Amino acid sequence: MKINLLKAVTVFFCVFCLSSAVLAENLEIKGSTTVLPIAQKAAEAFMKVHPDVNISVSGGGSGNGIKAIIDGTTDIADSSRFIKTKEVALAVEKGVYPVPFGVAYDCIVPVVHPSNPISNLTSAQLKDIYMGKIKNWKEVGGEDKAIVVVSRDTSSGTYEVWESLVMKNERVFPGALLQASNGAVAQSIAKNKFAIGYVGLAYLNDDLRTLKVDGNEATMENALTGVYPISRVLYMFTKGWPEGTTLQFINFVMHPEKGQKIVAEAGYVPLY
Q1: Which helix (H) or strand (E) holds 31?
Q2: C-beta of residue 238 within 8 angstroms of C-beta of residue 246
Q3: Residue 16: pLDDT above 70?
Q4: What DSSP string describes 144-201?
Q5: CATH of the domain at 172
Q6: pTM (2 d.p.)
Q7: Domain membership of residue 172 as a residue range
Q8: pLDDT single digits (tens) 93-107
């Protein structure tokens, strides 16, 4: 009798687990490594409130996130830039209508090794460094050492904003070391006394020295007012107007007391 009861309980438990797994909703989020800290923290908080929802979050770059929305392989695309005209055209061709939601503000911050004495560069100097015209730190008031230029790869939304706002649509010179994520850039700069790179606000740490741009610091106030010259909006895109769990998650991220508090905790500038 005891054995039969044990079997019955085991069978019930297995059926219950299988049913729960079937009933659980899955939400896929892909894209920008800049937006990644927001998405990860928001997903963890959302799943605590909605234990029947499984959220998978991954990086890969803004371009890859938007491509995934167009291809239908993600529910939400994180992007640190706005969608391009050619991406909109491709999406419409496939019957997809991406909807953008601004979820935070950010500054792209030039960073160097803490031992570097430089504290400010002009927009023109940054452009010349990344075009390979300025090659030595002594040309901008630093040591007589060659500048190691670190940049993001071309699938990155951060790279594209940098290309637009700093490079004025000129390309970064071929000698730059390309990195696939904000984290990889930060690590490269922390290990090289003569390197320069750029990262989003959430990736600043004690191993990096932040530079002013045109005398302006990358602060919350300067991002909101646009005083800091390399500011931007961070986005989440959905495939058409969101519904169900996707809509719930977007509303959660944009809520002043929920997701926007997480935005601040992640190191970015809240909408409100």
Answers
A1: strand 25-31
A2: yes
A3: no
A4: S-B-EEEEE-TT-HHHHHHHHHTSTTPPPPTTSEEESSHHHHHHHHHH-TTEEEEEEG
A5: 3.40.190.10
A6: 0.83
A7: 106-225
A8: 999 999 999 999 999
